[in-house]
Amino acid sequence: MTVLVVGVPEGAELELLRSRIQRNPHFQVISHAHTPDVALAHARVLLPDITVLTVSGNFGEDPDARGVFQGVRALDPPSGVVLRTRAETATGDLDVVTAVGAVHLVRAGDEEGLMRALRTIGLRRATCDPDEMP
């Protein structure tokens, strides 16, 4: 499964996240982007199976995060999304989007939750319908 990482700047956090994802041989980080326009350009060209989108604040009030989310979900086939929130971020505004199929909410630092979300999306993609469970 190919993974696009969005919203994490170059540095230690990005390298740690990349290494966590790639510990499982079924997942390969193919690109990363810190800005929305670059993220969407990469997504349109690379068509990632999964997008790990780090949300730094309130998702409902962040047009950049919403734009990336809507853009990767509009791909054909749509990218599964792991919405990764900072530990202090309130998650109430994310409940609506996580109910939309192959979208999962994970707190930053929750490695087990991240891998569980990636595996679940991977199983959905294996059925050729990324929004339905096998």
Strand-helix topology:
Layout: E1 2-6, H1 12-22, E2 28-33, H2 36-46, E3 50-55, H3 63-73, E4 80-85, H4 95-98, E5 103-107, H5 111-126
Parallel strand pairs: 1-2, 1-3, 3-4, 4-5
Helix pairs in contact: 2-3
Keywords:
globular; 134 residues; 21% strand; 40% helix; 5 helices; alpha/beta; five-stranded parallel sheet
Percent of residues in beta strands? Answer: 15-25%
Globular, elongated, flat, extended or rod-shaped: what is the shape? Answer: globular
Taken in chain order, the helices and strands follow as EHEHEHEHEH
**Class inferred from helices and paired strands:** alpha/beta
Number of helices: 5
- Percent of residues in helices comes to 25-40%
Widest beta sheet: strand line-up? 2-1-3-4-5
State the distance separating the first and last CA atoms: 16 Å
Largest sheet geometry: 5 strands, parallel
* Mean pLDDT across every amino acid position: 85
What's the number of extended β-strand segments?
5
The rounded Rg comes to 13 Å
Q: Which residue ranges are poorly predicted, with pLDDT under 50 across at least 5 consecutive positions?
A: none
